[in-house]
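TASK: fixed-backbone design
INPUT:
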């Protein structure tokens, strides 16, 4: 089986910042489109029930004439979308392995800002669990697995934690570079190269502008707010659009660090890069996981990079597909 030790990028691709930047490059986006198109899969939109009136968009892909071995639900990272390069590339690899794929858009990601009046935040796990249950009910004959990247890697592990109680028949999950302790990640973004703060803040403020245009009642989201730094902007979100008493309470609400996953019942495979510049490897030191949750550590890869070639092919997408397919075969 493919494991983290198999990732051996060429020397010129061993810089973590280069890996992290190339992960969202146009080269990767084109490669994702190419690989997904080459599968011959047919894709159609799903509007999923997130509970309490919440609607979430997803895209279901299936290769005609193939009896699927299972169904894989994919979750993207913060300010990514179902159309992100790694989502398309992972979908392509899973379709090649004989699975159907559903790529979910979180609230306010992709072109879905109009679906719900409330603003996305990272503690909205209930609607993702509910949507996963909706997916399972639509394809009751297919065993279900799931995978996620970065914040989506955090969400997929929390989905696995909640799935048994919620009645979601989840067999296995795979997580790539999951956010463990959000407070530490915030510190890392602030202290790291300015490009990370610029990248995330640019995408987030653009999303909030789209939300404000659709829902004028969000008058508190004015241009002064949108000029705040990323910590202050997160503080505004917590104060105005969540029930958390403080920024730290909010971070604790979606942290999976320490022993928070000790009760995980669904088997999980987790891939982390030791040189990740966004999620410090030190945060994994006191992580308490059950025996059926396996952490694999690659020496290189940056943040959700794991790029293998000039074409933009990625190791992590192949790794996810194999972990999930092997889980279903077992």
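OUTPUT:
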């Amino acid at each position: 089986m493919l494991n983290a030790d198999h990732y051996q990028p060429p020397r010129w691709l061993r810089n973590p910042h280069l890996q992290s930047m190339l992960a969202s490059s146009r080269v990767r986006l084109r490669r994702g489109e190419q690989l997904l198109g080459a599968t011959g899969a047919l894709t159609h939109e799903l509007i999923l029930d997130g509970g309490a009136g919440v609607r979430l968009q997803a895209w279901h892909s299936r290769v005609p004439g193939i009896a699927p071995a299972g169904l894989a639900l994919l979750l993207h990272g913060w300010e990514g979308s179902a159309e992100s390069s790694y989502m398309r590339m992972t979908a392509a690899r899973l379709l090649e392995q004989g699975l159907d794929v559903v790529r979910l858009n979180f609230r306010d990601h992709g072109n879905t800002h109009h679906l719900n009046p409330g603003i996305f935040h990272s503690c909205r796990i209930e609607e993702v669990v509910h949507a996963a249950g909706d997916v399972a009910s639509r394809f009751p004959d297919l065993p279900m697995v799931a995978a996620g990247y970065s914040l989506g890697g955090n969400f997929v592990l929390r989905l696995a934690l909640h799935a048994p109680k919620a009645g979601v028949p989840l067999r296995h999950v795979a997580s790539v570079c999951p956010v463990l302790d959000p407070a530490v990640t915030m510190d890392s973004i602030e202290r790291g190269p300015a490009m990370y703060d610029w990248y995330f803040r640019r995408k987030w403020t653009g999303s909030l502008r789209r939300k404000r245009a659709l829902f004028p009642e969000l008058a508190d989201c004015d241009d002064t707010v949108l000029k705040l730094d990323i910590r202050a902007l997160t503080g505004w979100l917590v104060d105005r659009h969540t029930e958390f008493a403080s920024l730290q309470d909010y971070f604790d609400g979606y942290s999976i660090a320490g022993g928070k996953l000790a009760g995980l019942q669904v088997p999980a495979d987790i891939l982390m890069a030791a040189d990740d510049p966004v999620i410090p490897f030190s945060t994994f030191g006191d992580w308490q996981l059950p025996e059926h949750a396996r952490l694999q550590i690659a020496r290189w890869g940056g943040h959700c990079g794991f790029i293998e070639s000039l074409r933009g092919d990625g190791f992590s997408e192949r790794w996810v597909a194999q972990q999930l397919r092997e889980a279903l075969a077992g």
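COMMENT: Strands lie at 42-49, 55-62, 71-75, 100-104, 144-149, 170-176, 268-273, 293-298.
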